[in-house]
Amino acid sequence: MGQLKEADFLRWGNTKRVTGLRKQDHDGLWESLKNHNFDDFWRIASKIFPTTTPLSPNASPNPNGTSTFASPPPTALSLPPNSSTLSPSRPPSTDPSGPPVADRDGAYTVRSVPVRIYLPDGPVLQDLVPPLVDESESRVVIPWVPLMTNDFVGAHTLRQYLRTHLPLLFPPPPSQPQAYALVQGVVCPGDAEMAWLGACMAGADGWVNVCIGLGRPPR
Q1: Residues in CB range of 148: below 8 A, 6 or more apart
Q2: Which residue has the higher pLDDT, 23 or 60?
Q3: Phi, psi of 158 (to 5 degrees)
Q4: Which of 58, 75, 86, 188 to pair with 37, CA 20 to 30 A apart?
Q5: Which of 10-24, 59-73, 95-109 has the highest mean pLDDT?
Q6: Nearest to 84 by CA among 11, 136, 162
Q7: CB–CB of 129/156 below 8 Å?
Q8: How many angstroms separate the CA atoms of 131 and 69, rounded?
Q9: What is the pTM of this model?
Q10: What is the mean pLDDT of residues 92-104?
């Protein structure tokens, strides 16, 4: 539960989703894991994990141009001053003339995706991965910075993340990758979106565990 709380805080900026569970839900999570019962596990875990609402290109930023978060999470990120993102507003607008608003509980509006990278015979790297990037300049974007109208915001992919953090193993073209990524035992394509992985491929502890294998992926 400690790992789940940590992931919950890194993802949402608080642990309300975990601490708000009833005692029978806490017990149910543990019992479902012991009994390998996914249906019972997900009945409770779906209250904690983000939804898989797709990223909408027309999602509306916060109307006042400021973030709904009081402060950034406790991490030191070196980012350009004009980085931007969608604001996690909710509920979606009921005014048909107004633009749609991003789902507050959606995978693409989390503060960050909690990720651990397991290197062969090496240390475990723990990181916070922004779900979105400004594709016009390949900048990462964060939820407490206003969205700029001239920015093209896209989903942060596994390929982009690995090229940034493990450039020797995952160099840019025309060089070929020297390694591959496994998530939940599955060879993960480079265009997999980090937000989607956080919602659909995270472990029971809430973390996306990426195992790096050397050479070509198995077939």
Answers
A1: 82, 84
A2: 23
A3: -60, -40
A4: 188
A5: 10-24
A6: 136
A7: yes
A8: 16
A9: 0.70
A10: 47
